[in-house]
Amino acid sequence: MKKWMTLMATSALALSLVACNTSATPTSKTSEENTSDLTLKQVFEKSLAQSESIESLSADLDMVQKVEVPAQDVAMDSTSKMTMDLIVDPLSMHQKGTTSTTIPGEESSGQPQEMEMESFMTADGFFTHDNMSQQWMKLPKDVYEQMISISQKQADPSQQLKDLEAFMDDFTFNQDDKEYVLKLSAAGEKFNELIQKQLAETMPELGADEQEMLKELNIKKVDYEIHIDKETFNTTALNVVMDMTMAVDGEEMTLYQDMKSTFSNYNGVKKIVVPQEVLDTAQEM
Predict the structure, then answer these.
(1) DSSP 223-276
(2) Which has the closest alpha carbon to 243: 222, 225, 261?
(3) CA-CA distance, 241 to 224, in Å (whole number)?
(4) How far is CA 87 from the centre of its chain?
């Protein structure tokens, strides 16, 4: 039995090494002259190394989110479309877009409620436009510092690569003429720790109750799709689909999220300036 277990473990390791050291599978859109023989491990390494030279970028984000608490017959659907310019150091950001939310039920018209959003984050502080009052607001210093911490982790697409490097053996690895396409589809406990870590990073001030709530997180499905430019090794697109459940006050809440991000204009954003009108009129919260 011991020898059999050793043989099985050795075979699994060999398969893992083969997966990491196999070049990307060409698709029907891949010409022979543009077929790359780089392995998945090499593409990961080159992309992570390239991320060190990123000074700025632009991004477009489309997100669909559905939240349900079946026991209470509660459901909420929302869609968001955002554009963003980002400078890495010192961290500065301008974000603008819309969020549309639908809450089905007797007290709701069933019509989506659309809200425009815009915010600036620079050394001058974090400013956000309140859609209800049509007034610019300046967040307190402690909230600003928290948002800086969150944005540093979320805005750089290479952060996802770093988090997913441990799951390299689970990726499929394809290529077309211009890009490598990395796909990962999995479910269950092996991804719970990763998602818990990422959620905790977006909410660094979690209390004891919230930390316990994250422990009740169950990943039903998570799909990642990462597009990496063959020449620059910059991430051009990141698509993430998550389907998960969480226990809240003893009741199950389901969360479905489909997020598509595209990245462009690498090192093309030179400066982000908060308009003088915003500086002059913003109310401190």
Answers:
(1) EEEEEEETTT--EEEEEEEEEEEEEETTEEEEEEEEEEEEEE-TTT-------H
(2) 222
(3) 7
(4) 18
Which three-class secondary structure state does DSSP give residue 166? helix
CB distance 219 to 256 below 8 Å: no
What pTM value is reported for the model? 0.80
Per-residue pLDDT of the chain (285 residues; tens, 9 = 90+): 433 333 333 333 333 333 445 667 777 677 777 778 888 888 888 988 888 888 999 999 999 999 888 777 778 888 999 999 999 888 889 999 998 988 765 455 566 788 899 999 998 999 999 888 899 999 887 777 666 666 655 556 667 777 777 777 788 888 888 999 988 887 666 666 776 666 666 555 555 555 566 666 777 888 889 999 999 999 999 998 988 887 777 778 888 999 999 999 999 999 999 999 999 999 998
> With b meaning 16 or more CB within 10 Å and e meaning fewer, what string describes 149-160?
eebeeebbbbeb
C-alpha span between 132 and 167 (Å, rounded) = 44
> What residues does 5 pair with on adjacent strands?
none
CA separation for the pair 102, 90 (Å, rounded) = 37
Q: Please give the structure tokens belonging to residue 166.
A: 């441990």
Phi, psi of 132 (to 5 degrees): -70, -50
Give the 3-state secondary structure of residue 50.
helix
